[in-house]
């Protein structure tokens, strides 16, 4: 067995502490399994690879639509959810199949090099599946993709057919050796029936991913039946959800609620307008909720960020994602971290990394192998450079070492 040794100025092991470890020495075998984590003295480096910067575990992108990579630089910003939906409808098929594949190929390679080791990815078709299979078995920097086949449809009578169509796509992924299942998109794009049956089917796999409280337009549509999003749907002749007076997250939970807590991991994505009322209901009704944020996407569409301190105050399991290039200028977890520290200067790097690595691993059920620099795990080792005083800036970048 050949050992590899990595040393740096600091490491965030995320193994029981969010504080940096000075002079870390991480030893792995050829497969990337961590054999030991210790501290070196200046004369003990020996044959270790020394890197100026910070060692961190591989990152987990908790929310992405990589099949939309061909839309980079195309969308107008600050349109709100109604304007964003109009652009998706108009531009999604604006690039041919070859162009879409080339765009995806570039972003798959970027994730691998940057140190993303796992992705919670949304799919509406099969185009990303060959790339996911390739990177699952990548000889140098493998990346695990958990695929969620996202469903939407506003008309009750179409619900069963939409679910079965989505299940066929998920089955194709499974046949290729990929982990996949159907998932509901959001409260405003689905009839109550489709939302209910899709969530139930998806939770049979143990996990769903759900766009939740991404905008005030969504909240207004569900609570009052008014606003730009509701008007958009009516203008297009589409049915809208029943007005219940509940928040959008409460509306979702009411569709899937059981006598006991709803079992399974539920990834609630965006949370831009999450409230204490919504949080209380989620913690009461859901066994294992996660709350993923995509800061740059939220600014791109809404010029708004989630109430991070409210989420922290309630001890929520926060995860970090990039969303897609239809609502972001770059897919880079370090840029998301930079955005967080710029807008919430009191956030320590260790806490943000915990969201980006450890909680992401928990979300995907990969905590036994990913999420921390811990003996026995294979989390990937990533070098974070140019983060002086543990602050992420425009020069900061990440590179996967193993």
Task: Summarize this structure as a short list of keywords or feature phrases.
402 residues, alpha/beta, TIM Barrel, 13 helices
Notes on the protein architecture:
The protein has 13 helices and 15 strands. It has helices at residues 80-91, 97-114, 129-136, 159-175, 192-203, 216-224, 228-235, 248-256, 276-285, 295-302, 308-313, 333-343, 349-363; strands spanning 4-11, 21-22, 24-28, 34-39, 49-57, 59-64, 116-123, 144-151, 179-184, 207-212, 262-270, 286-293, 318-320, 381-385, 397-400. The longest helix is centred in the first third of the chain and has 18 residues, at 97-114. Helix 3 (129-136) links the parallel strand 7 (116-123) and strand 8. The protein is 36% helix and 23% strand. The protein has a domain at 59-331: Metal-dependent hydrolases (TIM Barrel). The two termini are 16 Å apart. Strands 1, 2, 3, 4, 5, 14 and 15 form a 7-stranded mixed β-sheet that branches. It has a 4-stranded parallel β-sheet with strand order 6-7-8-9. It is an alpha/beta fold and 402 residues long.
Class inferred from helices and paired strands: alpha/beta
The number of helical segments is: 13
Largest sheet: 7 strands, mixed
Number of strands: 15
Fraction in helix: 25-40%
What is the CATH class designation of the domain at 59-331?
Alpha Beta
CATH H-level superfamily of the domain at 59-331: Metal-dependent hydrolases
Basic shape: globular
Distance between the termini: 16 Å
The ordered H/E elements are: EEEEEEHHEHEHEHEHHHEHEHHEHHEE
Q: Which radius of gyration do the C-alpha atoms yield? A: 21 Å
Average predicted confidence as pLDDT: 97
